[in-house]
Amino acid sequence: MKILVIHGPNLNLLGTRETSMYGSETLEEINNTLSELALKLGVELSVFQSNSESAIIERIHDCLSSGIKGLVINPAAYGHTSIAIRDALLATALPFVEVHLTNVHSREEFRRKTYLSDIARGVVVGFRSKSYELGLLGLVHSLDKADDEVLK
Ligand code: DQA
User: Fold this and answer.
1) Using alpha carbons only, what angle is made at residue 66 by residues 60 and 68, rounded to the nearest 5 degrees?
2) Whose CA is nearest to atom 2 of ligand 1?
3) Cα–Cα distance list, 38 to 4, 7, 76, 115, 124 (Å)
4) C-alpha 143 – ligand 1 centre gap (Å)
5) What is the DSSP string of 38-71?
6) Would you list the DSSP string of 9-22?
7) In 10 A of CB 44, how many CB atoms?
8) Which atom of ligand 1 lies nearest, measured to the CA of 131?
9) What is the pTM of this model?
């Protein structure tokens, strides 16, 4: 089963970017940990980072032709602004988990709304890099089970 992880804008700077907020792990370290977890879960993982909204949208479109079965996405600031990324996810109808390193609900007012949360299969916020691991676990679990079983 193929899963795609998408990292949005400025996440390429993890490791040096506002470390008291986002932690000191680099994106490469996070991706390596995710790849190890994917191996244990028996899923094939691809990762993609872009600072460009259009590149993210195009990568989401490509999911159908490349056989991706679900996504873990940290949309970063685009989560709070991009109806276009929401529409791209709706267009593919693929299940996805939205993740954020920080608890966006405990920060500025404008971070409390995201355009993805209500259409996500699940949302994980506030556990720094662990948010990604928990998101991947939740996604794979939900894809492996019937929906009603996931809720038990
Ligand atoms: C973030 C939270 C967003 O509000 C912010 O714009 C980011 C990172 C997070 O992972 O906590 O760039 O998505």
Assistant:
1) 65
2) 76
3) 11, 17, 22, 27, 18
4) 26
5) HHHHT-EEEEEE-S-HHHHHHHHHHHHHTTEEEE
6) TTGGGTTTSSHHHH
7) 14
8) 10
9) 0.95
Residue 30 vs residues 34, 37, 47: alpha-carbon distances, Å: 6, 11, 11
Which residues have a catalytic role annotated? 22, 100
> Which residue's alpha carbon is nearest to atom 1 within ligand 1?
76
- From first to last of the 152 residues of the chain, give the pLDDT tens digit: 999 999 999 999 999 999 999 999 999 999 999 999 999 999 999 999 999 999 999 999 999 999 999 999 999 999 999 999 999 999 999 999 999 999 999 999 999 999 999 999 999 999 999 999 999 999 999 999 755 555 55
How is residue 126 written in tokens? 């506030």
**Pocket of ligand 1 from Cβ distances under 6 Å:** 10, 74, 76-77, 100-102, 104, 111
Query: For residue 125, which atom of ligand 1 is closest to its CA?
Result: 11
- Distance from C-alpha of 55 to C-alpha of 61, rounded to nearest angstrom: 10
If we measure between CA atoms, which residue out of 1, 23, 2, 3 comes closest to residue 13?
23
